[in-house]
Amino acid sequence: MDLMEAISNRRSIRKFKQEPVKEEDLREIVAAAIQAPNASNKQMWKYVAVTNREIIEQVHEAVSLKVDAIVNACETLGAGKGKKTAGHKFFWTFFRQAPAIIAVFACPYYGAMEEVEDILGMKLSFPLPVSAAQQSIGAAVQNISLTAHAKGYGTTWMYGPVMAHREIAAILGVPEPWVLSALLPIGIPDENPKARPRKPLDEVYCLLK
Asked: In this structure, how many other beta carbons lie within 10 angstroms of the beta carbon of residue 155?
């Protein structure tokens, strides 16, 4: 599959057929992830792929319980806040349907910017709460998404399950300082979503010559 074709045709998939994902395909998908650009080539990532149904159910239960606790807390605020939050539950837990998941973990990154902050004895102010580790994980997740798509699988980048990061790390046997950064369901798509609208290129791009 041509790279630009893969980029253009990739879709976020939330419904999956129950056909198993081949172990060799999971390895190749993660092999693509570790080729992603990353800060100082520290490769501050760890990947745990799961096809065991019982473990996926345990991860789902951990997230579901966390969502329910948040909904209950929101309900105490009144004004329908709990109901609104409950409406997001599917989008935080649909990975349960997938025959496989990939949990992406990151570890703390200490680079040049952090060194400067230590020298100054202060945190530098950035307009967005981003970090080199987050950007590195983002590049890796993109590689996972494109490689899965090229192999005929569907996936999507899930951040919601991170609310149960401690519970999920314990279930998957991943110790500190590793921290869950993303979770991706993997499987044969059981839906064919239409392309979502994108802003015109000229609205978001300019060339200074």
From this structure: 29
Burial class, 192, CB count within 10 angstroms (exposed 0-12 / middle 13-18 / buried 19+): exposed
Torsional sign, CA 58, 34, 143, 115: positive
* Alpha carbons 159 and 161: distance in angstroms, whole number: 6
Tens digits of residue pLDDT in 82-125: 777 788 899 999 999 999 999 999 988 777 777 777 787 877 66
d(CA 12, CA 10): 7
Q: How far is it, in rounded angstroms, from Cα 206 to Cα 66?
A: 43
Angstrom CA distances, 175 to 3, 35, 50, 64, 178, stand at: 36, 24, 17, 22, 6
Burial environment of residue 97 by CB neighbours within 10 A (0 to 12, 13 to 18, 19 or more): middle
DSSP 153-188: -BB--B-GGGGGHHHHHHHHT--TT-EEEEEEEEB-
Q: pTM of the entire structure?
A: 0.90
Name all domains of the chain by residue range, CATH numbers in brackets: 3-51+97-191 (3.40.109.10)
For residue 207, give every residue at least 6 positions away whose Cβ sits within 8 Å of its Cβ, in sequence order, or none. Answer: none
Residue type, position 13, single letter = I
Q: What Å distances lie between residue 122 and 115, 125, 126, 143, CA to CA?
A: 11, 9, 13, 35
